[in-house]
């Protein structure tokens, strides 16, 4: 909701206003009734303390004490912004007055020009009225509607000789032509409303809302404003001719512009999460929340709803549904991403352009893509998403709903389901991560990784359910970036009845390429939904790293719950074998005196086998302890990552994880009294730690050099490596002698942050506790590498 202090910024700057409440304004357009000095109107939709009323007066006021009384509210005096009485004639017939309620009076923001109280502010009911004014009329004019008064919030325009937007053309939103052949130019605010550019929801499939949306994006790209999008349906019936008709909405800079790139916000309520039974689709939000705004592509436009070119700024969209209208498109052969048409397409990297930023989107629902929901272009990066959907897209089982050809993708709680083909497809590049969410009911594989073309794919806590073929598949790929042990990590995932095809070829986890090692950490295999067929195997692995130690020299492969996963629901196949390893591909061989086991609930030895070949010639495995089964010697354990990978939550995710810094010395510590805070992020093998230490007292005669501990990370063991720290704030430190600078560092194979003192012509010296006087503080950020 637009706030008065923002929407009328230009107008209020011209008026000697009292301190008005900054509560969200309820803007209402009403016609005056009653008499000249006892004005009434229809009932207002909001309480009087939060109303901005656009009142079309019926009479001139004849006294200095007129009152205004909406039905159902008390009669309150109309006063000037200073609190003084109005003058006779401050209201005139057919004059559009702006009244703001303080709860005890109505403040007249724009007395009639020429009256005794007349201010240098003019109001235009709409664009047509604004265009009728010459720029010599006033320095600024407040427009109180786009087509009619009240259909959009008040915004301020100023006169100018040129238009800085939309190629210098007055299109009715950012710039409006004036009566003297010049321009009225919209003044920027941190938050604008899409209706300011004449795009309104619910006007029907014959009204093109795309031009107004494009104008708003162009405006935001220059000013950095966030565009608020009211809930409802917006039809996009044209493509962006100023940007090669690459999409209905195109965000891109010329050669990698550094200007902001069109942030949009619809509902701030999250859409329904997947609950195993329903897909709410576009237009749905949390119960009781607002309706999502929905951009739907017009018939046969055959372009993305949103096309993102090369930018150094990452656009941020939140709470918007993007509908590709799949049934009424014909595709984009030869011009789209690999000849495909997606709801959102992020362009491939362009040779010679060093920028690569792509998109941030939260609570966005993409559906109805002709071939898929999203394509992230090759060579691009910085794709980040929270609690967003991809559904009902694609034509065949070969199509990926979400195709990642670029790097640095983060999906937090994604919901990817009911697509014709593959749910998530990682084609190449590195540093992909998925946490939580669900990939379900897709017509082919749930998740596919293209072998060694993909480096560092980490999936943690995601539910993969009822996809028609493999839940997760690693293809035979090429050497990108190289053969990286542990490059794919499947951590604490749940696989529930994938492999709906009846040809006995699909598995929950399927690994084809023996040159790629997949780390599987504590998976859970269930059978909670009685549809389709069971998978051939829960795990089929050419090369698998078994992880998640349970007790010393005892390693758990997998957990099975919710029924017997070794029995097919069809009558055509014999009992299934939950775990299968191809022979001769396990790295390192069997660890001596090591037990590998499967924790199972309700399973018998006769139905549970781990096979060296697909004939399972070794027969069933036998229980070693209650509920556990010994895995034969051709299985092997190999650590996925060092630094306690399995014990640290989301260790390779680019999300901020809190940690608690401690302060001490390398000598006599004494007793420090302090508060601390910090967070860390990991990017492949690089860790960034931020710390804040506030010491209020330190007793016990401490000695030695000050240091900060408590880090969950051990720095790289490479002897020549030294991590760097940037100190953002220092208080209570005084260097001895000629020492004037304090720097931090992380030594090799260490968990502590240490400090040196520097000075012109002075040798480097460790920072001793005697140079600090409590209270003191140390704030900073350290960057260092860890072992992989």
In short:
By secondary structure, this protein is mostly beta strands.
Characterization of this structure:
The radius of gyration is 33 Å and the shape is globular. Strands 16, 19, 22, 25, 28, 31, 34, 37, 40, 43, 46, 47, 49 and 51 form a 14-stranded mixed β-sheet that branches. A 12-stranded parallel β-sheet has the order 14-15-18-21-24-27-30-33-36-39-42-45, with helices on one face. The relative contact order is 0.04. The chain is mainly β and 788 residues long. It contains 4 helices and 61 strands. Helix content is 4%, strand content 35%. The longest helix is centred in the first third of the chain and has 14 residues, at 210-223. The chain starts with a helix and ends with a strand. A hairpin with a 2-residue loop joins β46 (549-551) and β47.
Fraction of residues in β-strands: 35-45%
Form type: globular
Total helices: the number is 4
Radius of gyration: 33 Å
Cα separation of the termini: 48 Å
Number of strands: 61
What is the helix content? under 10%
Give the mean pLDDT. Answer: 74
Low-pLDDT stretches = 1-24, 273-281, 283-289, 479-486, 545-655
Largest sheet: 14 strands, mixed
Assign the structural class, choosing from mainly alpha, mainly beta, alpha/beta, alpha+beta, or little secondary structure: mainly beta
Question: What structural keywords apply?
Answer:
788 residues; mainly beta; 14-stranded mixed sheet; 12-stranded parallel sheet; 61 strands; globular
């Amino acid at each position: 909701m637009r706030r008065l202090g923002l929407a009328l910024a230009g107008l209020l700057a011209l008026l000697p206003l009292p301190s008005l409440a900054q509560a969200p304004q309820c803007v209402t357009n009403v016609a005056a009734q009653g008499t000249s000095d006892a004005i009434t109107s229809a009932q207002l939709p909001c309480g009087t303390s939060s109303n901005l009323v656009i009142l079309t007066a019926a009479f001139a006021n004849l006294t200095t004490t007129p009152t205004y009384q909406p039905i159902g509210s008390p009669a309150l005096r109309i006063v000037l912004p200073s609190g003084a009485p109005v003058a006779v004639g401050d209201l005139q017939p057919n004059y559009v007055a702006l009244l703001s309620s303080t709860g005890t009076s109505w403040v007249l923001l724009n007395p009639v020009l020429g009256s005794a109280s007349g201010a240098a502010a003019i109001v235009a009911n709409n664009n047509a009225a604004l265009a009728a004014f010459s720029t010599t009329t006033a320095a600024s004019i407040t427009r109180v509607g786009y087509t009619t008064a009240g259909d959009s919030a008040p915004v301020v325009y100023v006169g100018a000789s040129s238009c800085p937007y939309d190629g210098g053309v007055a299109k009715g939103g950012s710039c409006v032509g004036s009566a003297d052949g010049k321009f009225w130019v919209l003044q920027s605010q941190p938050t604008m409303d899409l209706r300011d550019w004449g795009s309104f929801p619910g006007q029907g499939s014959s009204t093109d809302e795309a031009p107004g949306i494009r104008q708003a994006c162009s405006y935001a790209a220059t000013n950095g404003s966030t565009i608020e999008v009211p809930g409802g349906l917006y039809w996009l019936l044209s493509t962006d001719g100023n940007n090669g008709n690459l999409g209905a909405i195109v965000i891109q800079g010329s050669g990698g512009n550094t200007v902001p790139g069109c942030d949009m916000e619809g509902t701030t309520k999250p859409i329904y999460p997947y609950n195993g039974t329903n897909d709410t689709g576009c237009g749905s939000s949390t119960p009781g929340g607002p309706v999502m705004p929905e951009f739907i592509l017009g018939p046969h436009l055959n372009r993305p709803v949103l096309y993102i070119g090369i930018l150094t700024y990452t656009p941020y969209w939140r709470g918007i549904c993007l509908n590709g209208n799949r049934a009424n498109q014909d595709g984009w052969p030869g011009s789209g991403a690999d000849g495909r048409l997606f709801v959102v397409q992020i362009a491939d990297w362009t040779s010679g352009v060093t920028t690569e930023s792509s998109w941030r989107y939260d609570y966005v629902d993409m559906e109805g893509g002709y071939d898929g929901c999203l394509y992230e272009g090759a060579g691009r990066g910085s794709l980040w998403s929270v609690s967003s959907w991809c559904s009902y897209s694609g034509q065949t089982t070969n199509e990926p709903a979400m195709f990642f050809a670029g790097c640095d993708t983060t999906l937090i709680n994604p919901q990817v389901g009911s697509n014709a083909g593959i749910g998530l497809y990682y084609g190449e590049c590195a540093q992909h991560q998925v946490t939580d969410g669900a990939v379900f009911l897709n017509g082919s594989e749930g998740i596919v990784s293209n072998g060694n073309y993909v480096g560092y794919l980490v999936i943690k806590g995601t539910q993969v359910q009822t996809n028609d073929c493999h839940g997760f598949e690693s293809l035979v790929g090429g050497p990108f970036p190289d053969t990286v042990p542990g490059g794919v990590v499947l951590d604490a995932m749940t696989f529930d009845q994938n492999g709906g095809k009846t040809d006995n070829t699909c598995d929950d986890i399927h690994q084809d390429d023996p040159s790629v090692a997949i780390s599987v950490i504590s998976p859970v295999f269930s059978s909670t939904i009685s549809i389709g067929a069971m998978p051939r195997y829960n795990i089929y692995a050419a090369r698998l790293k078994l992880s998640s130690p349970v007790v010393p020299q005892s390693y758990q492969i997998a957990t099975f719950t919710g029924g017997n996963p070794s029995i097919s629901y069809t009558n055509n196949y014999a009992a299934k074998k939950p775990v299968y390893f191809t022979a001769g591909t396990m790295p390192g061989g069997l660890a001596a005196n090591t037990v590998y086991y499967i924790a199972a609930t309700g399973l018998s030895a006769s139905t549970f086998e781990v096979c060296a070949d697909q004939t399972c010639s070794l027969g069933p495995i036998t229980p070693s302890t209650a509920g556990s089964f010994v895995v034969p010697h051709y299985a092997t354990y190999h650590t996925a990552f060092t630094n306690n990978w399995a014990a640290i939550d989301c260790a390779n995710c680019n999300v901020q994880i809190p940690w608690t810094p401690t302060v001490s010395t390398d000598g006599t510590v004494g007793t420090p009294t302090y508060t601390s805070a910090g967070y860390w992020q990991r990017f492949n093998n690089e860790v960034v730690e931020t710390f804040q230490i506030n010491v209020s007292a330190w007793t016990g005669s401490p000695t030695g050099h000050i240091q900060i501990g408590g880090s969950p990370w051990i720095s790289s063991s490479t002897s020549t490596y030294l991590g760097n720290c940037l100190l953002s704030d220092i208080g209570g430190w005084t260097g001895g002698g000629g020492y004037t600078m304090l720097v931090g560092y992380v030594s090799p194979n260490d968990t502590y942050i240490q400090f040196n003192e520097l000075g012109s012509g002075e040798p480097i010296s460790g920072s001793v506790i005697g140079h600090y006087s409590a209270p003191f503080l140390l704030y900073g950020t350290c960057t260092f590498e860890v072992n992989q």
